[in-house]
Structures are given as C-alpha cells and as structure tokens.
Amino acid sequence: MPPLPPGAQSAHTLLSADDPREIGGYRLHARLGAGGMGIVYLAHTPGGRPIALKAVRAEFAADPEFRRRFADEVASARSIHGLFTAQVVDSGVDDPTPWLATAYVPGPSLQQVVERHGPLPTRTVLLLVAGIAEALQAIHGAGVVHRDLKPANVLIAEDGPRVIDFGIARAADATGLTSTGLRIGTAAYMAPEQAQGLSVTPATDVFALGSLAAYVAGGVLPFGGGPESGALYRVVHEEPDLSRVPAELYDLLWCCLAKRPEDRPVPGELIGAVRAHPAVGGRPEFTDGWLPHGISSEIAAHGEPPGNGGYGTGGHPAPEHVHAQPTRAAAPTPTATALPAPAPGRVEGRTAPAPRRARRRRRRGTVVLAAVLLAGLGGAAYYVHDHRKGNTAADTSARPHTPSPKPSPPSPSASSPPSGTPEPVYVPDYADVELTAPDPDYEFDLSAGKVVPAETADWYLEVADGEFVLPDDSDAFVAAGYVLSPADCLRGIEREPVTELPYEELADERPFCVSSPDGRSIVIVRLIEAVPGEGPVTVSASRHHEEPA
Fold first, then answer.
1. Can you give the pLDDT at residue 469?
2. 357: three-class secondary structure by DSSP
3. What backbone torsions phi and psi does residue 469 show, to the nearest 5 degrees?
C-alpha cells in the first residue's frame, strides 16, 4: 500500500471492521469523514496519488431514482475543470455501492478553520469570495448548481480554496428519503427560493456564498442558528444580521443576500468587485500571506491542532455544527467601496432591527374589562397563506372543523343581547390565516395576521412556555364549545374575560378570541399544534373589525 501523504496520519480514522477494504478497484486506507449521503475514505490511485472516495449510503443506493440522478450529476461534475474545485477523477455509478472519487486536498475545511481560528481578516475573506466565485463559474458553466455551498464544503489549501460536492445534492433532493429524517442541504445557507421548495438557479449559489462569507468574516451565521425551522423562516422573511461583518465587506455581502434571485450579482461581478476593493489592490492572488500565519503554518505542516479530531478533508463536509443565534445589534455604517451597486429598492433596508423596547406584560390574575376585538388563529405552515380568499362576514367566524363527538355545554356568551341593544356588526379583515412561530423569538402580530420577531408588534400574541401571553391592554375569552363568532366574543369578554391562555386548555382547536387595545377589532384564534419546550407553535387566526354605526 502506498504511504500516506506527509502528516495525513493526523487527519484520518483507521478503518473499522465494518468498513470495506476496497471499492471500485481502489484500496481504502482510512476514513476521512461521514455525513448525510455517505462515508469518505482515503484511497490511492495505482500510481500512488491520494484520492478521496465517497461511498453512497445504502439507503440512497437502494433508490432507483437516486441512482439515475446520481449518474447524471456525476457525468456533469466530471466536465467541471475549475482550478478552485476538487476535480472528479473516477466514479462507479452502477456498482452495488455507488461511489465518486475526487482529488485529495490535504487541508481543513473552511468550517474547521473558523472554528479553530475565529473570523478571518477582510483581505482573506475577499480572496475566498473571488476563488469560490471562480469555482462557481466553472460549476455553472457545466450546467450544474451546487445547492449545498457552505464552509464545510470548501477545503483550504496553500494556494486557495477548493469547492467540493458540487451538484451531488440534487441527486438526493428528489428521493423519498429526505422525508424520513435525512436532510440534503443546510438551512442556514439556503436561499429563500430553495427554502420554499422553488426552482434553484446559479443565483441560489450566490446567496449561499454571501451567507458563507458573512459567517467567515463575522464568526456568526447571518440568519442565526438553532432549529432548522427557525433558520428557514428567517432566511425567507428577515434581513441578514451583518452587524459583526467588517464595514468594508457590508455592501458586497448585502448584494449577495438579496431576497430576489435577479437582484444578486453573478460570480463574474463578484470577482470584479474583489479586484476593485482597496484591501486587494487589484491583485487577488493566493500568494504568501493570504492566510493568517497560524492557519498557513498548520496547512504547510499538514498537521492538526491539539485536541481536535482531525480534518474533514477530501471531498466531504464535516459534521454539522449548531451555532448560537447572534445578537441583533445595530449594523455598521457601510463604507464606500468599488462594489456592485445594490439592487434597486434595497438600500433603505440595510439597518439592523431597532433595539427592542421595554414592554409591560400582563400580570397573572389581573382582570381588565375592555371593548371587544376578536381574532382566530390556526394552521400548520411556516409561511402565511389565506385558504379562503373573498370570504364574507357570514363564513369567517371559524374555519371548518369536525371535532370528535362530545356535548358542548351552553355558553353564557351565546345568550341573546338585551332587548333594544343593537348587535354590533363586524367586517372581516383576514380569515383562517395559518401561522407558525418557530420558537419564542417570534410572536403573532394580530393586526397584520403574520409572524414577526418578538417585541415588535403592538397587538400581539406572545409564545411563552406552555401558554400564550397577551398585552396589558387586551382581554381574551375562551369558548365553551367549538363555534365562536365575533358577537359571542364580545359578550364573552364582557362576562368572562380571561388573562391566562395555557395551551392545555386550548386543546382540540378550541377557539378563543382576543380584543384589540382600542376595543374595535377582534381576532378569533385556534391552537393547532404546540411542540413542547420551545418548539414551533401553529395557530389559525381570523380578524374582524367593528363597522361604524
């Protein structure tokens, strides 16, 4: 067996009894990593050159649709010859265990570099953007979209970055395996169109490059960490947090992270912007000094810092890491540089969210009698949608529901109004809007019928530990049965207002209503699902306002 590359002993794991000793005629020497799609091994060509050989997991190998798409993607990948990509050298798409071999890169992933050494200098980040953008030019030129560009899929060598795993994620996207707990792609780096399941284009990879560069430059994810559901929501609906990115990089990354694909620069424009940047001086070259000394010394020695488990090199991402959500501080003032012009209409949106204002929450046990507004919430989607466009006042009191048969005791709210008192007339504003708050960092904006960051709405329903929390100047009423109209809501708040809304009392989509601070609007809400702990909370809501007499 040929000897390992110098220093590679520290970057691999010895083969276990369950590992094969040979794949596709290549003798395996060690494990380099493992992840969602397979295991990566260190192997050697007959002439002794080291290669990284990725063996596909058995679950994917047994899926005919995956095999077909894998063969197509490998054929496309073999046509990519970029200097900043890890070249595909061989494959076995028809073998019992499909596999793919790429050039071995004796260096750490960009993910490992940041975890070991922290955020990188501005010039280093710019050079990485230029190198990765050139890799994307080669990838896109072959008709391939990477789909999973992230720091773990960029390896760092002495002469620049190497992008790996290009296009292979598409082979797994169409299989049924992703619905059984396997996820291909990384939420924190997905573009909005990818997060929503829409068509991906080369612009999708540019968005991922912007997220990657923001993480490398600031040390935190631009859309935060935590559960994937929360990250996906922020990618689609919120602006990136670039508060820790150096000011001289702000404009460049903001352009990459535009919500609309057509507003993002193409890779060639990114390369031009890097060349024009004062920190690069027109010469984006990977010569001595492009990396901080500690990183370059580590790579030159092919060594490994004490206490680390080794590089995830050779064409496979290292295991996923959970990142704490960054503090939403004020964004730095952008510095004028020779960068692509921001997309029209996006300049005004650059400031970070305003600091959260102090706000009083309702004290338990306080009873505040108020005039009435009702709202109904229920549903289970991460994005707002109205199922019943053009509803009339007669059909918006609650969404259709067929609970398990059980008697509904008469509600005092259902009694007739006093003789001579005109019944208020309520007009619908929105109906049966389904909303999901990913975690307690979000709340339901009852005025707009949408999910917003916590502490931003004036009329809100806060997601707390096991209960909803109301504003001090709003009251609520919980129906005894499963039907609740605006008129019922008004009478219920007058007679039996509640100040506490624990989830356990709202089971089976039992409706409740909330009045607005001015007493002229009502939202009727149904709790659809509340994941224990700090998980997502899904509701359905309908808002009505009182028609002036």
1. 92
2. coil
3. -120, 135
